[in-house]
Write a structure and sequence with these properties.
single chain; 6-stranded parallel beta sheet; alpha/beta; 461 residues; 15 strands
């Protein structure tokens, strides 16, 4: 089963927004590449006809970029089937079994609210539809440590661990994969990639827009759960992990899990919470809501390599820029040979990884200016990594899951270890501080990082 290809894809929640925005365009791309040739069975509660599902798919693909291969698109439509039913009704799973026909190794994709994950997984088990199958679960996988453990237990009661694919679309981005490659494919990096040379690490994921129509969801999640505990922690793991024993995904997962296990549990004073002015006026948001739309934290990894090095993470909505960027700041030279190179006002050497909106890697080094005096300036050696024809994250991740390749997914122990880091501050934290839209968050966030020179806002290139 480990290396076998799934012979059907069942999409729960096929009428929802996630399917419309992300999944249908990904399926179209997979058909065009020739990697999707098996039946696709959509499952949802509404009593839709197959023709209505076809119209939904057509609208989705047109909005995502258009239909540029009519033969491939017609092939995608020919693969579709639809099952309507309640996830609590055993009859729904009987109808899925009938729709699967001769398929014996289906992949079940749960593009549904997290509250329904356990219901569907148990339904698949009760209907004996889990043998030789895979289940793909959308984030968030739990909302705290206890719920993550309960969900893992429920999933493991029906599926073996290597058949459970916990999907985080962030890990499917080319720029995120490049971080792992850059770290272990270059000889020059390893000698300085540790506490002896690295002063601090900053990771920023900022968005210019607010919650929009997602107010009800955000009231149950908040920025810490929605972005930091999963997306940004995954970046930390890739940057902080030890070299894996091999290139196989099992070896990578082992080292990433060790990073999460070594993270020091957060306390309230390690975190600054903010809420943009106007959030409480958004649809489905409580008038006195204390949910954070901005979160910044100071994190430590108690390992040999990173002991004492602060990791600063922040994310928020209604900020000045939409970007994801990492800055690894290096310590200054040990001897103050050139005064300008050691002034606090001067930026230190650093590595910069830009994840979005474009992909890039940069190294900042000081270069002497022309003239007799030894005065220089910081310049970047800049490498743009954007490549035409990149697979979308969902295109890549769905294809990998159906092929049984778990490299870009998260494992049970890593999920629980990551939740353990934030579990205490999910309940015990300071109240949110308000910030104006278009600013970089509340003043508390600046105080958090003041001793390390302040936040480095994302570059414009």
């Amino acid at each position: 089963m480990a290396n076998s290809q799934s012979d059907a894809l069942v999409v729960f929640g096929v009428t929802g927004d996630l399917a419309h925005k992300m999944i249908f365009p990904a399926l179209y791309a997979m058909v065009k590449r020739g990697v999707l040739t098996v039946p696709v069975i959509g499952v949802a509660f509404p009593k839709w006809s197959l023709a209505r599902l076809h119209n939904r798919v057509t609208n989705s693909v047109k909005r995502a970029g258009g239909i540029d291969d009519k033969r491939a698109f017609q092939h995608l439509l020919s693969l579709l089937k639809y099952v309507s039913g309640d996830y609590n009704d055993s009859g729904t799973f009987a109808a899925i079994k009938e729709a699967l026909g001769d398929a014996r190794r289906p992949a079940y994709y749960l593009a549904i609210p997290p509250s329904l994950f356990e219901t569907v997984i148990k339904g698949l088990g009760a209907a004996k539809l889990a043998a030789d199958a895979r289940v793909i679960v959308e984030k968030p996988f739990g909302r705290d440590l206890a719920s993550a453990r309960a969900l893992n237990k429920a999933a493991r009661a029906v599926f073996p661990e290597d058949s459970i694919f916990r999907i985080d679309h962030f890990l499917g981005k080319e720029a995120i994969m490049n971080i792992l490659y850059f770290r272990f494919a270059n000889t020059f990096l390893e000698p300085i990639w540790n506490r002896n040379y690295v002063a601090s690490v900053q990771i920023t994921l900022s968005e210019t827009f607010g919650v929009g129509k997602r107010g009800a969801f955000y009231e149950t999640a908040g920025c810490l759960r929605d972005v930091i505990q999963n997306h940004l922690f995954q970046i930390v793991a890739l940057l902080a992990m030890e070299p894996p024993a091999g290139r196989d995904f099992g070896a990578v997962h082992i080292e990433k899990a060790k990073v999460f296990a070594a993270m020091r549990a957060l306390k309230a004073d390690d975190m600054a919470r903010g809420q943009y002015i106007g959030y409480r006026d958004e649809p489905d948001v409580a008038k006195r809501s204390d949910v954070e739309t901005y979160c910044a934290l100071r994190l430590f990894i108690d390992s040999w390599r990173w002991d004492g090095v602060p990791w600063y993470l922040r994310s928020g909505k209604c900020l000045p820029d939409t970007a994801t960027e990492i800055v690894v700041e290096l310590k200054p030279p040990p001897q103050k040979l050139f005064a300008d190179a050691t002034r606090k006002s001067e930026l230190p050497n650093y590595f910069r990884f830009r994840v979005s909106p474009n992909s890039a890697v940069a190294l900042a080094a000081r270069v002497k200016l022309a003239g007799q005096e030894f005065i220089g300036e910081l310049r970047e050696l800049y490498l743009s990594e954007d490549q035409p024809g990149e697979e979308s994250p969902y295109d890549r991740l769905l294809g990998d899951a159906m092929a049984g390749d778990g490299a870009l997914f998260t494992r049970e122990d890593a999920v629980e270890a990551a939740w353990a880091v934030v579990d205490s501050v999910l309940k015990h934290h300071h109240r949110v501080r308000f910030y104006k839209p278009g600013t970089w968050g509340p003043k508390d966030a600046e105080a958090l990082i003041a001793r390390d020179g302040g936040w480095r806002n994302p570059s414009r290139k």
